[in-house]
């Protein structure tokens, strides 16, 4: 109990640092700093040689919408408009052998022209040719709004 009394009435009321706990903490901090310094130096020495960067993917082309009737004229890369006028319909003729002949009919086409184009790709007998011409003529009249 005497030791306890001496402990309680120590002059200045300071902490007893004789246990060495703080010394251990400081020693650990210094050791950690030295270790980190050694790692940094080793990492700096062990750097790999600089390699060229990987090739980049080619840039995507930028989408630029077409101008509609703006200044500078028609700069569209598509084909020029057909002089025969706008498309009316697509005529498909299936021959006896099963082959399909497709002809696009424009507003300025005549029934005879369309029949000749169909016959150039798949020959027809004269009665069938006349029937086709009549049918195309009726269809053209109906699509043009005359008749």
From TrEMBL:
<comment type="similarity">
    <text>Belongs to the UPF0561 family.</text>
</comment>
<dbReference type="InterPro" id="IPR018888">
    <property type="entry name" value="UPF0561"/>
</dbReference>
<dbReference type="Pfam" id="PF10573">
    <property type="entry name" value="UPF0561"/>
</dbReference>
<protein>
    <submittedName>
        <fullName>Chromosome 2 open reading frame 68</fullName>
    </submittedName>
</protein>
<feature type="region of interest" description="Disordered">
    <location>
        <begin position="39"/>
        <end position="92"/>
    </location>
</feature>
